[in-house]
User: Fold this.
Amino acid sequence: MVSMVIYFHYLLKFDLPTSSNTLTNFLGSVCLLSLLGGFISDTYLNRLYTILIFGSLEVIGLSMVTIQAYSKDLRPDITCEKSCIKGGIALMFYGSLSILAIGTGGVKGALPALGADQFDSKDPKGAKQLGSYFNWYMLSTTFGAMIGVSFVVWVSINKDWYWGFFMGTMAAIVGFIAIALGKPFYHYPPLRSSPLLRIAQVIVVAFKNRRLILPENPVELFEMNDKDKYQYDEKLPHTNQFRLLDKAAIVPLETFPQPWKVCTVTQVEEVKVLTRMLPILASTIIMNTCLAQLQTFSVLQGVFMDQHIFGKKFPPASIPIIPLVFMTFLIPIYEFVVVPFALKITGHPSGITQLQRVGVGLILSIISMGVAGIIEVKRRDQSIKEPFNPISLFWLSFQYGIFGLADMFTIVGLMEFFYKEAPSGMKSLATSFAWLSLSFGYFLSSAFVDIMNAVTKKIAPSKKGWIEGDDLNESNLNLFYWFLAVLSTLNFVVYLLCASWYKYKEDTAESETEQK
Assistant:
């Protein structure tokens, strides 16, 4: 998907900013729609059926993209220079991307949780295996992406783009058949009532009871003990954060209270858990905004560089393989070397906590932005000085290698964090929060480019935006990277405050036991 920025630019005749924004908006939509898949698999369908239904939409979307890439009638005329996507071409283009985004997003929302459901996180062995699962999930995704940005991209550029999209379509079909074959072996958690409904109920009842006085002893708050009805519920201990929500669990005078008059302590704590997650989610958005820009603009940088590495031509669209190669080696090293070593020191099943892992990723993302700015200065200076002797594409491996490390720490850490900390009936929805963070990052990255161009056009002596036009040599992409590095540093400070304030479910349970 990342390499599609070149498809947009050269075949569909978008300019560079529009190509970048179209791609980031598409990827942002994919990640945002993972919430839909997570919500449905928690409430209405089991994880497998959700994956297969949305997977069918993904295959349809890929097929439509393939058809448009194949048919000359569905592509802009080769002589067109501006505003080439309109009429039936625009309908096919945006329709195929929309269906593809819905299908891919729905799969993303249910697939990680389906694998994680097979482990018992309450068992020490299961908790360790759960942490390993997310590492192997990331490694498997990395292997698939490596094939996509190397062999498939090579076919797309050297043969035709429709062959690349066709290969993606066939791979998706094979993948969904493979996951369907595992149906007899999967463990499915029971479906529960709508998480959105339970959240709304707590907010409404707490608002209704806002004038009531909370009891001094939390034991006096309402908690259902009907084991038959709530045998699958995870009973959460009471916490003192967000005490205002506790008013939803004040016991009413009625002997048999109605659902919309009182909530259980567990139900209130579910909302508290999600509320505690929100600052963590918000503080990772800036990092994902920066990484989204690094992904897209690094591909465009490669177009203006010497594409020969070790005597062989290396297509710019395959540049994303650099962090993937790093991750392929680093994930097993992290799993077999770093985690056991850290386990001996910390005693934590995953070596370090999930939030510590995300913090490492944030630091690495700051470094990658700074390095990217330095590499861009070197690339631009050489292109201006000696236009026919550009620097090697290999220089991008530095920023992309650090980016790969940041991605490995952050994405896996967020997925495991949201899955383990989520209430029992919201696992898929909460795991999708990791993709939600990426989604806002992609959408904001599009806005960043537009806003940055508008602001710098007014204040720059040249009266030109930092990233404007089709020639990167006339842009100031390095300043844009450094601006993102400064922004990421400020964001890291905010993250540290949020992470230190957060209380893990295990910590609150231990605190409750000590109090008793």
